[in-house]
Specification:
By secondary structure, the chain is mainly α. It is 55% helix and 3% strand. The longest helix has 21 residues, at 51-71. 19% of the residues are buried.
Length: 157
């Protein structure tokens, strides 16, 4: 018999029969190193974020990547990404899709948040040129691409 996984009682918590799980002290050095690498505790103090900020810190990089895909002409319409986000990553359909939602939130808010976080936490949050352009000019992310991007995507077909 092939045994793919065996519960050994180890992980973030120590599980002992008959008692509540307790944090495993051997994991703390790994957590501290991860915190150091991600700069999640600048100046040794944990950051304080709201539920809304947590949501934005997770989804705004997805919006940013959608902007890169649009800019590179990999998809022709933002609505294609909306459909893909609903069907592929279970983005809530009542929100209309990732790009539609970002337009409701506002490209400028997405851009300024990513820019602030990239300065605080590093390049992962660096806004794309497409997002920056749309945000500064007040153009919705879902607006049709400029003629140069359209020409690029048509040349790939």
């Amino acid at each position: 018999m092939l045994l793919m996984w065996k519960n050994n009682g180890k992980g973030y918590y120590i599980y002992e029969k008959g008692s509540k799980p307790k944090p495993d002290p051997s994991v703390l050095p790994i957590i501290e190193e991860s915190r150091r690498l991600t700069n999640i505790i600048p100046a040794g103090k944990p950051i304080s974020v709201t539920d809304k900020e947590i949501l934005e810190m997770i989804l705004f990089p997805v919006v940013n990547e959608a902007c890169r895909v649009l800019d590179e002409g990999i998809v022709v319409r933002a609505s294609d990404l909306d459909i893909a986000s609903v069907l592929g990553m279970s983005f809530p359909s009542y929100r209309g899709g990732i790009v539609f939602w970002a337009d409701i939130v506002g490209a400028n808010h997405v851009y300024t948040s990513l820019k602030k976080w990239s300065e605080m936490y590093g390049g992962f949050y660096k806004p794309s040129k497409f997002l920056e352009e749309r945000a500064t000019k007040g153009i919705p992310l879902s607006a049709p691409a400029t003629s140069s991007a359209t020409a690029t995507s048509k040349s790939r077909l």
